[in-house]
Write a structure and sequence with these properties.
Blueprint: H1 3-41, H2 45-51, H3 66-71, H4 96-102, E1 110-111, E2 121-128, H5 132-148, E3 152-160, H6 168-182, E4 187-191, E5 195-197, E6 211-212, E7 216-217, E8 233-237, H7 238-243, H8 257-267, E9 281-284, H9 299-309, E10 321-327, E11 332-337
Bound molecules: 2-acetamido-2-deoxy-beta-D-glucopyranose (NAG) (2 copies).
One 2-acetamido-2-deoxy-beta-D-glucopyranose binds next to strand 3, strand 10 and strand 11.
């Protein structure tokens, strides 16, 4: 009952507390060290630096400023401007001047809604070579389509210089890396130039999981080409694309690169989501297979190796030279020299 035993008890409790605090410190220290290790081991360390490098100036008046974000309200979850299924027209008489004059709110390839803050900032990336008419139809339809969705967006055309075999996947890697120098986009839509969406409820925003937007097209009777198909038009957040190290750079010619991306996604235990079939419909503007884009005969071989190669073949190994960046009224034209296929397989 004396003072001494009580004091003793308090002292013991104090010691316990001290010990507990010490333990916690040690644990925190261990955690800090091990997470350091993880970062060091990441194959994408250099990539992080590129992704976070200083921004090149986009048309700055078009970029949502901090004040704007606090003054304006966020755009509604469902845009009141959507019209659903549309009848598409492809008039041979359409000109670029006409499309420009119909889209004067688009500046330097970029658009930002005037009266609300867009829910996502989206970079549309188009791998491209010699498809003027397709590009014209694309711009004609896509600008109003994206504006009805109230998105902050920019359209990037990634133009492969020279005439060696086309490499869609590598161009898309270049587009991702270059677009991030303009702005910290939330979402990337990888888009073939000859596919035009028929329904504006097919939202060009990214989801928790990678998204495939083309369930059907007129050329396949509006059926999915095959189970697991991830080509044509797909959308991934910056983080999702980083996690899979982007596309492979080694697929020259037509086919396979979209299946490779799907395998990378599966290896990261992500799943592919799709909008309902009645919404995810496209018209494919007719064309012959371009010269310079022959079927890639190596694709099956390459696909078998993806689990071994994805960490070293992708965004972190994408070497190229930018020849020009032209900011046209309705798109940003990035012309790149992406090299040529290595022949030893
Ligand atoms: C799909 O529609 C486009 C535009 O009307 C047309 O050019 C193309 O030939 C159609 N394709 C098929 C297979 O019907
Ligand atoms: C993009 O720029 C290159 C180089 O200036 C040019 O040759 C090409 O025609 C341009 N493409 C488009 C679609 O504007």
């Amino acid at each position: 009952m004396g003072v001494l035993p009580t004091l003793f008890k308090v002292a013991r409790r104090g010691k316990c507390l001290l010990l507990l605090v010490l333990c916690l410190c040690v644990l925190a220290w261990i955690a800090a060290i091990s997470s350091d290790d993880v970062v060091k081991e990441s194959p994408f360390e250099d990539l992080k630096a590129i992704e976070e490098s200083p921004r090149r100036e986009l048309e700055s008046e078009m970029i949502p400023s901090v004040e704007e974000q606090t003054l304006k309200e966020s755009c509604p979850e469902r845009s009141p401007l959507l019209r659903g299924a549309l009848k598409l027209t492809f008039e041979a008489s359409v000109t670029l001047e006409q499309v420009e004059s119909e889209n004067q709110e688009v500046v330097g390839g970029q658009y930002n809604p005037a009266d609300c803050v867009a829910r996502q900032s989206v970079a549309i990336l188009i791998p491209y070579r010699n498809r003027e008419k397709h590009l014209l139809y694309f711009l004609y339809h896509l600008h109003p389509f994206l504006q009805r969705q109230q998105l902050h967006y920019a359209i990037y055309v990634i133009h492969q210089a020279g005439d060696v075999t086309f490499n869609r996947a590598k161009l898309l890697n270049v587009g991702y890396l270059e677009a991030l120098k303009d702005y910290n986009w939330d979402c990337f839509i990888f888009h073939d130039v000859d596919l035009i969406p028929e329904n504006d409820e097919n939202l060009y925003v990214c989801e928790e999981q990678p998204k495939h937007l083309v369930v059907g097209r007129n050329s396949t009777g509006y059926k999915l080409r095959y189970k697991g198909y991830f080509g044509g038009v797909s959308g991934m957040t910056k983080d999702q694309f980083h996690l899979v190290n982007g596309f492979p750079n080694t697929y020259w010619g037509w086919g396979g690169e979209d299946d490779d991306l799907r395998i990378r996604i599966q290896l990261q235990r992500m799943t592919i989501v799709r909008p309902p079939a009645e919404v995810a419909r496209y018209t494919m503007v007719f064309h012959k297979r371009d010269s310079g884009n022959q079927v890639n005969k190596d694709r099956m071989l390459l696909l078998r190796r993806t689990p071994q190669t994805w960490k070293k073949d992708g965004l972190n190994s994408c070497s190229y030279n930018i020849l020009s960046v032209n900011r046209e009224p309705l798109y940003i034209n990035i012309t790149a020299d992406i090299g040529q296929p290595e022949h030893a397989h």
